[in-house]
Amino acid sequence: MKIVLVSAGLSVPSSTRLLGDRLAAAAAPAATAPEPAPADVQVIELRDLAVEIAHTFTNGFPGRALADAFDAVAGADGLIVVTPVFSASYSGLFKSFFDALSVTDPDALAGKPVLTAATGGTARHSLVLDHALRPLFSYLKAVVVPTGVYAASEDWGAEGLNGRIERAAGELAALMAGLSTSRPLPRRDSFEEVVPFEERLAALRPTG
């Protein structure tokens, strides 16, 4: 199992990256339970790719580092995406990365479990999860985890954040495990014989 964390934090250290790391730390062991080894986690820092993301829109193709990031996202069993809130929505860098990815590989996220998360200065921006992030990844044909995680400045160290992290991580792990263990459709000859309705009805009628 492989989890890719995409962080759009700009500062160092970054509360956006911190939230992403906590989500990944909770999801990695759950994704492979009851196996002892946790899922592999790869981190993509978008601030390191900003120049290549911009060049992609002018050159028409990604640079080497950005192409590697696209490959990692496409090959992941599950994604954790975290963005700071700018002007009541995701950051431009965050959106540009996924815009460039969708141009390069329109089906990169199709059917892929995605846990969405965001950070901001006030709890009033928590609706960004449902009003911006969920529609974006639904459009990209991803399977969005039911619980998103928003962390305002006052949430750090406060009661409640840990519970939301654990719940969202558990949902991501469950989706990853469910998709990886999906059973194939049964063989045609394994179905029960189909009996026409008229014959079933006739069998119920009294005789004599």
From TrEMBL:
Gene3D superfamilies: 3.40.50.360. InterPro entries: CE1759_FMN_reduct (IPR023932), Flavoprotein-like_sf (IPR029039), FMN_Rdtase-like_dom (IPR005025), NAD(P)H-dep_FMN_reductase (IPR051814). The keyword NAD does not apply. The keyword Flavoprotein applies. GO terms for molecular function: FMN reductase (NADPH) activity. Its EC number is 1.5.1.38. This is FMN reductase. Keywords: Flavoprotein, FMN, Oxidoreductase. It is an enzyme of class 1 (oxidoreductase). SUPFAM superfamilies: Flavoproteins. The lineage of its organism: Bacteria, Bacillati, Actinomycetota, Actinomycetes, Kitasatosporales. Residues 1-156 form the NADPH-dependent FMN reductase-like domain.
